[in-house]
Amino acid sequence: MSALTRPVIQVRAMRAEDLDTVSAMENASYDFPWSLGIFRDCLKTGHPCWLLCMDEVIAGYGILSMGAGEAHVLNICIGTQWRGRGLGRHLLGRLVDIARWNGAERVFLEVRPSNPLAKALYESVGFCEIGRRPRYYPAHEGREEAIVMVLESAAGNLEQ
Predict the structure, then answer these.
(1) HSE-up of 93 (CA within 13 Å, CB side)?
(2) Catalytic: which of 70, 105, 110, 123?
(3) What is the mean pLDDT of residues 109-135?
(4) What are phi and psi of 68, to 5 degrees?
(5) How far, in Å, CA of 15 to CA of 18, rounded?
């Protein structure tokens, strides 16, 4: 790609053949990653599982659960080499769009207090803290609480 060519950003459905790459990205990104089996189960059960690709290379992924007019972001990740380019915001925007298209009026997610960059991204697009889940996440020193956030009416500031 030349300096004048913009990369092609594509969001597409995750497929079984993508799972090894997704699992490797998860393992490189988190101290307590999801297993390959969890990703496989998400695909099998029909959760909306999406990839963000840059010039056809997987740069990130997101997984939703849907039901009763609500969506829940179960997992969202941008690979370490792709961070700092606004791709997390882009992928989150597409996940919210997918939630809207499927009738969600609100989108929920959890975030670790020890992940201030993710929390700041979510707040910048309109997610608000609505509570805490004690001892939710595994941590090196026991367990860490989760900040529960919601985006009401699945409408936010995703393109800014």
Answers:
(1) 14
(2) 110
(3) 96
(4) 55, 40
(5) 5
Classify residue 46 by burial, with Cβ atoms within 10 Å: 0-12, 13-18, 19+: exposed
Q: Tokens 């941590």: give the residue.
A: 139
**Residue of 132, 146, 7, 23 lying closest to 77 (CA atoms):** 23
User: Token pair of 157, please?
Assistant: 């500031």
- 15 pLDDT band (50/70/90 cuts)? very high
Q: Which of 61, 122, 137, 144 is catalytic?
A: 122
* Over residues 84-104, mean pLDDT: 95
Q: Is residue 145 annotated as part of the catalytic site, yes or no?
A: no
List beta partners, residue 147: 111, 132
Is 122 part of the annotated catalytic residue set? yes
Which domains occur in the chain, in start order?
9-152 (3.40.630.30)
- Token pair in block for residue 84: 């700092």
Q: In the predicted model, what is the mean pLDDT of residues 68-72?
A: 95
Q: Residue 1 has which token pair? A: 């790609």
